[in-house]
Amino acid sequence: MKDKEFNDIRAYRTHRFDFISDFLIVFPLLQSLAWRTTDGIRLDYLGDRKKVEADIKGGAFFMTNHRDIVMDAAWLSYLLRTHYFIRPFMGVGNNLFAKPWIEHLMRYLRCFAVKRGAGPHAQLENSKHLSAYIRMLRENGKSIWLAQREGRAKDSNDLTQAGVLHMLALSFEAENRPVEEFFDFVKQLNICPVSITYEFDPCDYLKAREMQLKRDNPHWRKTKRDDVESMKTGIKGYKGRVVYRLTPSINHDIDAMLEQFPYYRGLPVKDQIDHLCFIIDQHIFLGYEIYERGTDFDKYIESRLALIDIPNKDEAFLRDKLYEMYNYPVINHNKAKQHYHLAQ
After folding, report:
1. Which domains, and CATH codes, for the chain?
2. Please, which pLDDT band fits residue 255 given cuts at 50, 70 and 90?
3. Which residues contact residue 149 at a Cβ distance below 8 angstroms, ignoring those fewer than 6 apart?
4. β-strands 144-147, 111-114 pairing
């Protein structure tokens, strides 16, 4: 694969010996983490398993909700590799490359850099560059993982950011193709959403803490130290039962939508993207694993609240936010079941 023009962002691992390092080094580490920090990690399917397996067979763009900075992609990669021998390339924000050795390690693990923090013009050029790289990977039959949004949804209200799809659209726009072909371009990416559900989020108290800090000071920003703390907590913290649920390609939904509303092809790309965001969201919402919460859950929330140490600690606000991040997936799942249906 000729990717020298993408040396600044590309993942390093493309050779045939990846198999050896995966199964002798990387995967035993991930298995050890699973044993120590979860009550099991399960790969599941939304709807017909054979339909989903057919959709991902030739490579896919796996787009997930974002629960953990590191483990979301790591365990998905592990599950896909061990079940289907698929090893996706993974998009990771360059803000996580806090030290050179971390960057080299993550790129070796098939992570490519999503550049952030530049000015408007530089950010646009970075996005075009990234869009072209992703397009090149998919044209070569490679699978990709990317979160549905930049950064995690602190309240677990997982909504696909239109900006992510706008970034993907930049390589389409660079070719000056007519707007009527945009859905065909998206279908070539073969976006297969994946729902990630943790029974317990080890970073829940850190997210609640951030929400109060931002409420009290709109200019507050996370530091590199905060990012490292979130990474450590997410990796080492207890997660309970974890479910990764693969869903069918959105190509089926696009075809059904265009059959019913053919004029959607002529809409501006911005409006077409809004429809795509809705489709992706519904796949993820329907794919959530819903856990029963007993009376002990109230004690759990209080134990997480006790971990938060900040000035002017607003316990009522923080408690509401902790409950909110566990309630949103249930709310969105139930809403999705009411107005959207995938073949079961």
Report:
1. 4-339 (3.40.1130)
2. very high
3. 66, 158, 159, 160, 161, 164
4. unpaired
Q: Give 82-139 pLDDT, tens digit per residue.
A: 999 898 999 988 877 767 777 777 787 788 888 887 778 888 999 999 999 999 999 9
**Whole-number mean pLDDT of the chain?**
90
Distance between CA atoms of residues 53 and 43, nearest Å: 12
Write the CB contacts of 152 (distance below 8 Å, at least 6 apart in sequence).
66, 67, 68, 69, 203, 207
User: Global pTM?
Assistant: 0.92
β-pair type (89-93, 111-114)? parallel
The widest CA-to-CA distance across the chain, in whole angstroms, is: 58
Angle, helices 182-189/269-287, rounded to nearest 10 degrees: 30
In 3-state terms, what secondary structure has residue 207?
helix
Cα distances (Å, whole numbers) of residue 129 to 5, 13, 38, 95, 103? 9, 19, 37, 17, 19
Question: How far apart are the C-alpha atoms of 191 and 249, rounded to whole Å?
Answer: 6
Angle (deg, nearest 10), helices 315-339 and 296-305 = 130
